Structure formats: structure tokens, C-alpha cells
Amino acid sequence: MNRKQKEEAVRQLHLSFKELNNVFLVDFRGLKVVDAISLRRKVKEVASHYKVVKNTLALMAIEDTPLEELKDEFAGPTAVAYTKKDPVVLAKVLIGFATDQVRIKIKKALVDGELLTAEEVKELAYLPPKLDLIGKLVSVLKCPLGGLLNYLQAPISNFIWTIDQIRLQKG
After folding, report:
1. Residue 9 and residue 17: Cα distance in Å, rounded?
2. SS in 3 state form for 108-138?
3. For a disulfide at 116, which of 39, 120, 129, 169, Cβ 3.0-4.6 Å?
């Protein structure tokens, strides 16, 4: 790579990193090419990205971005997995791949502005996806309202039922 190509690569990385809040740094040491291709495909399936970056270029690109907190982690072979969507889904893919292929390790992550360790990323991976959690919240909020509605309608329903029974008895 010549100097102009490096400057362009840093500029492109900087533009990509500036918009991100959900980033996972991965140590891919010893990962076979076939496995790397498989990992890239799995990450792409969940609308995310996986890039292997040179540490020197990445360190220049993360200046003035949310990823600046991760600058100490850019040592050794480093890949960046990132998404603009649900970070739980990407965490599931990476942790699933890490358990299948012992060759990759999560270094650290930045999720919604919070710095996470590898253990916290594992915990994140075991959460249900965001839409499932929202659905559960809606159902939990709906149950008391439905109960209240039934409670408020009960006197009216009982009154109507009583009137109907009286009508049936008198013919």
C-alpha cells in the first residue's frame, strides 16, 4: 500500500467508525482462511460487518470517534465486527463462533457507548433479541390493563346478566 492508499483507507475507516456505537474487537490469531470466510458470511447474514484492520491504520482512524476508548486493544491481530442494528444478534454470532472455533477471542466491545469485557459480551449474547424483549415488555404492560378493563366491566356485565335472568323468569 502506498501513502495515498493508506490515507484513503484511514479516511474510509474513520467515516465508518464515526457512526458506530456497537463494535466488537476480535483476536483471530490462528484462524484458518476457510473459517474466516465462514465467520464473515455469518456476520453478513445478520446485517453486520467484519473487517481485519492494520493496527496502525485503525489507531489513526479511531481518533475523535466513540471507538477511541478501545485504542489499547489494537495490539496483535485485530478484527473489527460492527453493526448499526441490534448488537445482541452480532454478539450471538461471535460467541457462537468462538465456542465452535476456539481460535477466536473477543477482546472488548463497545455497545451503545458502554465498554464491555469478553465476559460481558458472553452475557449479552445470551439475552433475547431486542424485538423479543420489546414484545415481552408490551405483553407485561398489557396484562394489568386488561385485568383492569375486566374489573371495570364486571359490574355492568353482572347487572345485564341479572336483568336477563329476571326477564327469563318472568317470561
Report:
1. 12
2. EEEECCEEEEHHHHHHHHCCCCHHHHHHHHH
3. 120
Supply angle C-alpha 73, 51, 97, rounded to 5: 80
155 with 85, same domain: the answer is no
Regarding pTM above 0.85, the answer is no
pLDDT exceeds 70 at position 101: no
**Domain that residue 28 falls in:** 3-127
- CA-CA distance, 74 to 55, in Å (whole number)? 5
Pairing of strands 79-83, 49-52: antiparallel
Total domain count, the chain: 2
For 44, the 3-state DSSP assignment is: helix
- What is the greatest pairwise CA distance in the chain? 100
For 126, other C-beta atoms within 10 Å of its C-beta total 10
